[in-house]
Prior knowledge:
alpha/beta; 5 helices; 40% helix; globular
Amino acid sequence: MVDVAVIAGSASDDAIARKAIAVLEEQGQSYDYRVLSAHRDPDALEAYVKASDARVFICIAGLAAALPGVVASRTDRPVIGVPVSGTLGGLDALLSIVQMPKGVPVACVGIDNGANAAWLAVRILRI
């Protein structure tokens, strides 16, 4: 069993994922890191989420930022979204992540703040 699944929507989000992974490693939390797109490969994403035994998901996504919401719609475990800066400075991704429909909660940290997502995951795991 891993504590945290870190999912990036694109390989270009790797630097932000590495910030999260550094905190998880520092805090002794186990993790699994994958690059899976909610748009380009939804079937692989769904299979991964369903098969994962992670206790918390960190989802890193920019632009339309569908990844955290899609993951949250497939699990009842906590999902933390990390908006990635892009065309609109990351505001597009931030708004996409925080405006989830009722019953599909996603926690959201600041733009490009993978480290804070990991810190939030650590706090959730300590409950």
